[in-house]
Amino acid sequence: MSAFGELLIHKVTASQIQAFIKSPSHAVLLIGAIGSGKTTLARRIATELLHLDSDEQLQKYPYFTHLKRPDGKEDIPIDAVRQVAKILKLKTPGRNGIRRVIFIEDAHDLNEEASNALLKMLEEPAADSFFILSSTSEYALLPTITSRVQGVFVQPLSLSETQRYYADKYSNKSIENAWRLSQGTAGLMSAFLGSDKDHPLKMAIDEAKQYLHQDKYERLLQVDKLSKDKSQLALMLEALLKLVTALHHSAVGRGSEAQQKRLLASRKLVHKLQNALEANVSPKLIALELALKLV
Question: Which fold is adopted by the domain 197-293?
Fold first, then answer.
């Protein structure tokens, strides 16, 4: 069994990762939807590159750094990346080619200054260090950053792949329900089937279910709360999109034509608002349009 054999991962994604682990450069970008399991995959890659035996060993390894957006903040600040620059100046013991790994989770959260500082490190990589970045889109990062990393798409899984993986643990009905709601994203499927209450997107989907049952007045009362944190609004929109997509697929051939049209309109609205948020439209305007137009 390969190092990734026990993970639920698309075979094409696994093949790409195994290929670059055999001959690593200095940086990789994992691209995938929210809930696709990028963080789990990044940690496994780090474990392999550092010749460690487990995630527990990685957690204790002194030359592994995991950087992400601080709770309550809208971005990864420049100070955090400057700290990484200081870390890179420290010597690492050992004879392995790669002895230090920097993992930047959701690298699209880097602010402009932090992005430019990261770019400088990628332009002049330390010989003993490897960068792992993750993002929902390669276009959310500076083109000069994406041109200096190897991109790997964390592809969604088919229903048959998922059923084979979970066959001896859950019923086919439970697996199919989790697959449809997660749209084949491994991390979110695992959260649904394993009852992981703390998975951010699963929590957002639970909130999205409540939001769909609210009337327009109740939704308007939530505009300020939703627009306060751009990242949380993005998570809510992703949760709503997954939810209405699953409902739409279920309604096709079963529900009324009016219901199908309503769900399709909701999908189009949420997708439009996601694009607006990426284009830096005011979060408050987006939350307001969501409250008024979601049907």
Answer: Four Helix Bundle (Hemerythrin (Met), subunit A) (1.20.120)
